[in-house]
Amino acid sequence: MISEKKDIRALSKEQLRDFFVAMGDQAFRGNQVYEWLWSKGAHSFEAMTNLSKQTRAQLEEHFVINHIQVDTLQKSIDGTIKNAVRLHDGLIVESVLIPTSKRTTACVSSQVGCSLDCKFCATARLKRMRNLNPDEIYDQVLAIHNESMLYHNRPLTNIVFMGMGEPLMNYKNVLESIEKITSDEGLTMSPKRITLSTSGVPKMIKKLADDEVKFNLAVSLHSAIQETREQIMPFAKNFTLTDLRESLEYWYSKTKRKITYEYVVWKDVNDKKEDVEALVRFCKYVPCKVNLIEYNTIDGGDFQQADSEAIDTYIQHLEKNKIPVTVRRSRGKDIDAACGQLANKH
Ligand code: SAH
Questions:
Q1: What is the distance, to the nearest Å, from the Cα of residue 2 to the centroid of all Cα atoms in its chain?
Q2: Nearest protein Cα to ligand 1, atom 11
Q3: Lower Cβ count inside 10 Å, N or C end of the chain?
Q4: What is the whole-number distance in angstroms between the Cα of residue 310 and the centre of ligand 1?
């Protein structure tokens, strides 16, 4: 049920301080509540034990904490865990915990559904319902950290914005969530361990550079030939490779940080020599590395992963041109938790 009371996590620290002053209390109570909300991740006012009973009742009277609920949790044989997360208005998003030998990564969603139309992605079939609030992104991270402690006995180490949605189409809330996750008054996680993945929205990439963000940027490229990219990612008509390239040059000039290009090789789509050559050319504009992602099949899709020879050709050409390349194996496929498979199937 949607409460009439205001969600306390929509308030800034200043506003919390002001609330207490208006109540005839001391401003520093606002700091205490802020710490409970963003550093300790409190789910209830009851849990805020350094506040008096009366103060807690006062908070209860004015506010709610719209915390997410993990609706269903699925475990893969490889240790990957997928959460279907229920938001306060009943909508569902998914987030994934991916353990490897060295790290534990949270893959989080930034929107309910997606407004982009990548032909190979299951999320694209759900229309965009709404943006996630900063607290809803923060909660996914905390839920995964807790699951990592519970099931794998180790803390979360990395975060990738590679779940549902296009993070740069929810710019303000995504950046605010990262602020809460990284700040000293929040979860104190290093921004170097956070990667935002975008399908490539040039204007917003420039804005990231202007805002001097400290996290990493990954771009879902999939083709460096304009016509091919438009076929598989139709929105690319509006966000052309020329504009994308220019925005990435701008990003690098300001941040001096390498870009990661995510790239799936599909049979008869981008598995020819000219596709490889175009990628190599594109990679020379800005210091980068290439992450070749295994294709994860989606229901009713007509895409097919390319032959291993085609993938090897990519690797050879990239390496010959001194462009670092890695091949990413999919995780959690048996529970539809791999890249592009998040579609609320349950
Ligand atoms: N909108 C953002 C983040 C979500 S998608 C973006 O586009 O980057 C996260 C990654 O999964 C992207 O690189 C995307 O291209 C890739 N992806 C989508 N569908 C996929 C599929 N079926 N198999 C493999 N990767 C896929």
A1: 26
A2: 339
A3: N
A4: 20
Domain range for residue 37? 6-64
> What CATH number does the domain containing 33 carry?
1.10.150.530
283 is catalytic: no
Residues 217/161, Cβ–Cβ less than 8 Å: no
Largest CA distance in the chain: 72
Residue type present at position 118 = C
Closest CA to 284 of 253, 245, 257, 255: 245
Is there a contact between 204 and 182 (Cβ–Cβ < 8 Å)?
no
User: Buried b / exposed e across 320-336, counting CB within 10 Å, b at 16+?
Assistant: eeebebeeeebbbbebb
Is 339 annotated as catalytic?
yes
Identify whether residues 54 and 140 lie together within a single domain: no
Nearest to 223 by CA among 165, 262, 169, 167: 262
Q: 276 — phi, psi (to 5°)?
A: -65, -45
Contact, 337 vs 299, CB < 8 A? no
Q: Please write the tens of the pLDDT for every residue from 176-224.
A: 999 999 999 999 999 999 999 999 999 999 999 999 999 999 999 999 9
Check: CB of residue 224 under 8 Å from CB of residue 245.
no
Q: Please check whether residues 156 and 85 belong to one and the same domain.
A: yes
Q: Which of 95, 108, 110, 118 to mutate to test the pocket of ligand 1 (most atoms within 8 A of CB)?
A: 118
In this structure, are 131 and 247 located in the same domain? yes
CA 342, distance to chain mean position in Å, is 12
- Give the tens place of pLDDT for each residue, 247-272: 999 999 999 999 999 999 999 999 99
Predicted TM-score (pTM) of the model is 0.95
Assess if residue 317 is contained within a domain: yes
Q: Tally the domains of the chain.
A: 2
